Amino acid sequence: MITCIRTNSTNEDFKKLVKALDIDLAIRDGEDHSFYAQFNKIDTLKYVVVAYHHNEPVGCGAVKEYAQDTMEVKRMFVPVERRGQGIASIVLKELETWCIELGYNRSILETGKMQPEAIRLYKKNNYKVMPNYGQYAGVDNSICFEKKLM
After folding, report:
1. 35 pLDDT more than 80
2. What is the 3 state secondary structure string of 55-106?
3. With respect to CATH, is domain 2-148 assigned 3.40.630.30?
4. Is the N or C terminus of the chain more exposed, i.e. has fewer CB atoms within 10 Å?
């Protein structure tokens, strides 16, 4: 059974999962990695979810405020050996629930075109492709999604 905890970016299990995420992204992004990395700092994330299976951290994600009514999903990750078990959807649903509780009604995110697992995850969870926003506008390798939460 997967259980989730709500925490922040000081959580050591979150930090370990993000380190593994960054290694994976460095390979996938190649020379574009430094561009994306600048937008993925975890120093001050207040809304982090870590998923556990028998006390083992098996997934994570976070949200941060993007606009008055909108949270941005960040740092979603499940290790390769744990993929295909629904963990990312559980984490994403917990983040969405938390956003609603905080009074937000929209969720947005960016992922890379070289991350087909992530694209499938978001489509499966009713996220719709939107025009690239903010720093991702005009970035060919990025694909942005949005979802109304209420």
Report:
1. no
2. CEEEEEEEEEEEECCEEEEEEEECCHHHCCCCHHHHHHHHHHHHHHHCCCCE
3. yes
4. N
Query: Exposed, middle or buried, 30 (CB in 10 Å: 0-12/13-18/19+)?
Result: exposed
The string of pLDDT tens digits covering residues 99-125 is 999 999 999 999 988 889 999 999 999
Rounded to 5 degrees, what are φ and ψ at 9?
A: -75, 5
Residue 80 burial (CB count, 10 A): 9
Position 60, amino acid: C
> E strand or H helix at 77, and its extent?
strand 70-77
Q: Is the dihedral of CA 79, 125, 45, 72 positive or negative?
A: positive
Q: Are strands 142-148 and 128-130 parallel, antiparallel or unpaired?
A: antiparallel
Q: What is the pTM of this model?
A: 0.90
From residue 14, how far is each of 19, 51, 71 by CA, in Å? 9, 9, 19
Q: Check whether 28 has a pLDDT greater than 80.
A: no
